[in-house]
Amino acid sequence: MTGIPWSALAVNLAAAAAAAFAVMLTTFAVARAKGLHRLVDIAWGAAFTAVALTTYVLSAGYGDDGRRILVTVATAVWGLRLSVHIARRGRGHGEDPRYERLLARAPGSRDAYALRTVYLLQGGLVWLISLPVQVAAYVAVPLGASAVAGGLLWAVGFVVESVGDVQLARFKADPDNRGRVMDRGLWGWTRHPNYFGDFLVWWGLFLLACGTAQAAAVTVVSPLVMSYLLTYGSGKRLLENHLADRPGYAAYTARTSGFLPLPPRRRPHPEDTRP
């Protein structure tokens, strides 16, 4: 059988939604008790892991076992690393300024507004973006060229994201760098190696799901949505707006690629700016 078993997948879609929202609602309860909504960032990767594990259990007897295992492991490794990294990064810090600004605009109850605009929204996005993870588990075609390409793309993205996070953490840990802009290592080639890595990871997972044209058609919306979020949505745009007034950031953006890793642009010589 090479077609997608739609009835089984429908059950999986419902269960995956329940898993994603369960993680987000649990996180909301903890965050509300602590008064710290930045905890939702930790839940992002954990929710994808919950969806992947739920899908692996429910897809037993369907699809190709090699693809099921590969997609589950790839998603869980990515999600858990991200959650652990964000948890370590935020340890000892107060509320994220992004959430402070968001909740300051709450028309009524701050908690209800946070639940609606942060937690439930992110739960829905986890469900939508994880479509390749869910559909891949029900594709009965053996692993082929698209899976190899997807695995390689995922691996490159995972390394880029992980290395970028480690480099930034080490930079911030040095007191001499306080207030300075990170422009070393991967950060000298792209202003967002972590977001670019995410971009590659999710296009890689999409290719892992593409055992058939049908699966590709059903899941292509997911990497497109993730790409939009990373470049124009809540990722790159919001972070750059937050950093815009930092000393040296304008010069950094002038010489460093905004997303795709590229060699740093040459700093203009003073004589090059003459009218």
UniProtKB/TrEMBL annotation:
Signal peptide: none annotated. It holds the Pfam family DUF1295. Keywords: Membrane, Transmembrane, Transmembrane helix. The chain crosses the membrane at residues 6-30, 42-63, 135-160, 200-230. GO terms for cellular component: membrane. InterPro entries: UstE-like. This is DUF1295 domain-containing protein.
